[in-house]
Amino acid sequence: MNTFRGGEGRCLEMTNGGTAVFVDVLMLAVSALAHKPWDFRFAALLTLQDQNVMGRGMVGFDLAELDWGATPPERAAAKDFLLRVLDLALSRHRWGDLTYEPARVEGYLTTYRAMVEEFDPATAQGTDVLPGPDEAAMASCVRHRVLDALPFWEACVFCTAGV
């Protein structure tokens, strides 16, 4: 089971298929909105949730493990970015580009959005699962028009799925 944790013991557990859909729609949204270094680092973290590379049932992360920034304005900007990504995904941004109907993903996105909304980045534990600035997802897959997993591997989540 893939688990994405929020604050106060809340978590979103998804099947392998549910996780793949969750990551796909988030990649569509994050690729459209990323502009700042933190945004591209978060995009890189999403690419590391690709089960085609990392293994089935082996992905997920805890909001408390993210480096949200050193100052209150940095933490607020990072949280705002993640909420905007979730809102864009919930608006069905580019879902027509998918080769399947993303069943159940609206419920996952709504649950995760509530978890992010409730999470206080000031309580983060300081262990950082975000890829470093030199590992940020800055390259784009021309075919799928999303950020890819460079420098980790030369493919996006759609390429590794064979789409």
Please sum up the structure shown.
The chain is mainly alpha-helical and 163 residues long. The chain has six helices and four strands. The longest helix is centred in the middle third of the chain and has 19 residues, at 72-90.
List keywords for this structure.
7% strand, single chain, 43% helix, 6 helices, globular, two-stranded antiparallel ribbon, 163 residues, mainly alpha
Secondary structure: elements and pairs:
Layout: E1 2-5, E2 11-14, H1 16-33, H2 37-47, H3 51-54, H4 72-90, H5 105-118, E3 140-141, E4 146-147, H6 157-160
Antiparallel strand pairs: 1-2, 3-4
Q: Catalogue the unreliable spans.
A: none
Give me the number of helical elements. 6
Q: Mind telling me the C-alpha Rg?
A: 14 Å
Structural class designation: mainly alpha
Average pLDDT works out at: 91
**Anisotropy-based shape:** globular
Task: Tell me about the largest β-sheet.
Answer: 2 strands, antiparallel
* Helix content range: 40-55%
- List the strand order in the largest sheet: 1-2
Q: Cα distance, first to last residue?
A: 24 Å
Please write the string of helix (H) and strand (E) elements: EEHHHHHEEH
Proportion of β residues?
5-15%
Say how many strands there are: 4
